[in-house]
Structures are given as C-alpha cells and as structure tokens.
Amino acid sequence: MKTYGKIAVLIAGAAMTMGNQKCQQQAAQPPARVLKKIVDMGAIRSSAINFPGGASFDFQFVANQQIYGVLQESKEFAFKYAPPIATAPATSTTNANGDTNMFNLTKADGAMMKASALEAGKSNYEVQYAQTAWCMANLPQVKIAGAVNSFELIGGGGITLGFTPAGAYPTNGLASAGLNLQFAQLDLSMVATRPLTSTVVGAANVTSKQTKTSVNFSLNFGALSVGPSAYYQTPLATVSKTALAKAVSGLSEQLKKDEWYTRVMANHDTHLIIVGGADVGLEVGDQLLVYNEEYYWDGEPCNSKYLGGGAAANAAVAKIEIDYVGDEIARGKVIEQNDYNAVVGAKVKLSKFHAADYVPPGAGVQPTSGSNVASNSAAPGAVATKPTGGR
Questions:
Q1: What is the Cα–Cα distance from 283 to 20, expressed in whole angstroms?
Q2: What global pTM score does this model have?
Q3: Residues 229 and 283 in one domain
C-alpha cells in the first residue's frame, strides 16, 4: 500500500508540473496582432457649463481635446491630422529639387518616398493616377463624431450644476466662489459613419450610470472660467476621459466585423507606397492584396456625389510584401501582379501577417537586377498570378 501511495503522489506531482508548464506556455503566447483602422475624428458637440454671475466653461473644447488623446491610446484606431495627398494631381507642383506639395508626410516618410521614386528611375513623384480613384487615398475607413448629452456636477445638499438634454441647471442661489462637489456623471453618444455615404456603421452611448464617479473636491468657478488648463488638473477630467474611452471601445467592438483596409498612395513600378505604417501596426514581411476598384459618380470623379463601387474578391491586380515601415506610410515590394498596374487610391487588404518565426532580411548589399513588372495602363483585372522581379 505504501508503494501504491508513493506512485500516486509521484503521478499527481508530475501532472501538476505538466499543468504548470502548459499554463506558462499559454501565458507566454503574444496577443494576436490587429491592424488599426484609420479614422477621421469629427466634432464632439456639447453645451457649456454655466456658473453663477454669468461666467461659463467651454466643455465642448475640452471634450474635443481629450478625444484625440483617447484615440492615440486606442489599440483599434489610428487617425491623421491631414489627408495623405495634399492636393489633387492636376494642381500639384514639383520644384527643381524634386520636392512636391502633393503629400502630407513626416520628414522621415518624405525622404523614404523620394528615395523610393529615385530608386525606381523617376526624377520626381510621377505616379499612376486614375481620376476615379486618387481621392480615395485621403478617405478614412470611418468618420467618428459625438455629442455630450449631459454633464452633471452634484454637490452637497443635492445642488447640481451642469446641463442635461432639457437645458442648463439654474445657477440662482449658488455662491460665485465655488462648490464642494461629491459626484460627477456624464452621458455621451458617439457614432461611426462611412466617409462617402454617411451610412451609420456603429453607435455607442455611455450613460450617466456608467460614469457616475465620486470626486470629492472643491470646484473653483473662477479657475475654470479662465481656461481649460485648470480642468485637466481636476478629477472631472478623469470622468470625461473615461466616458470618451468607453464610447471609443464600444465603437471598436462594433467595427470588428469591418475588414481592415488602406489605400495605395504611390506606384513606383516594383514597389507600392500605401497609407499607414507603424501607426496602424504593419510590420516588415506582411503581405497584402491590391484591388483597382470601379467607382460610379454623379458627375466629375472625386468632385461629385459618390454612387457606389468596389471590386470582386478574386480581382486583385497585385500582391505586395512590406519591406519598409515608416511613421504613417509603408512600402511593399510587388511579388505578384497581373497585366494591370495598381492605381493611386486602389484598395489594399491584408492577405496574411508574416510568420511568427519570420526574420527580416539582414543588412548587406543586394545585387541589382532588371524589373519585369508590367507597365500597362491601370484598370481592374483578374487574380494576381504573375511574379515580378525586384529592383
């Protein structure tokens, strides 16, 4: 019996050890990569907070300032302050140094763009534009906007300051110096829409019940009425930022069903420059498919009402492998292509992430070789099947 008991203890110990090792292995696995969707942030509307004596605080300004910080910290969204293509192709200019006013790029990304063009044998930024597509490169995947429906500051004795959908709370009888606050609560709505059609693809509402927070501090009306800097140093800033973060998180959950995509920004024959780099989470070795979509407009392309468009899933014109990741752009080497070149504004979708054991090419001198990338005029085509050489 003693022998059997020892065996049982050994088996149990081995099982526990194996279980711990398995848990450690599972814990060591990195989280699955997700590419950030490029969004455009519109305005967040809000009423002002009225104080005794006729003073007020511009809460709309604060909300619009805070949302950019929330988006910056987001793991699902990336946003741009300026459109990637600064001017329409017909109005862009190039000076003697080869610089152009065509793109809105960081200094490092601009240098990479210029170097890539020169490497492809181009003296300037000549690219293959399609009048029906170039403006697509400037469009985000969705536009986000919102409204603060109520912001209530609750003091001792049930005194409330702020506003609701019914209007602002009266300030009669309140001392003009300040108020001892106990709680703050905020109701916020945010919506995501398609950039061309304004179709709603996601909406989130964060209620007062979700944001009611104990603040316990003395609100100095005079300090807040001077400017927003004092607000950021109060517990109220945490209440409003929390509400914005909850709304952004709610939108990201709804938009998970939306396939990620970006756009071609320039075509350098053997390589394509696409919108989005480190800011969206792309890495060297990732492979993407490129589609020349067909678009329908009510009048002049890119300058009239958009009626629709798209491309079939099997109509990719090229496949690229990312070989350079910049701040807000990335470059991909064309590894497959059919008889049509990708146009500026073409849609780019993820084909596959690089393998977990992928190792980027090491430093060294690569032999030059000719390019057999097709140079026919741009148009929709069939599945990409033709491999191409590199430069």
A1: 33
A2: 0.79
A3: no
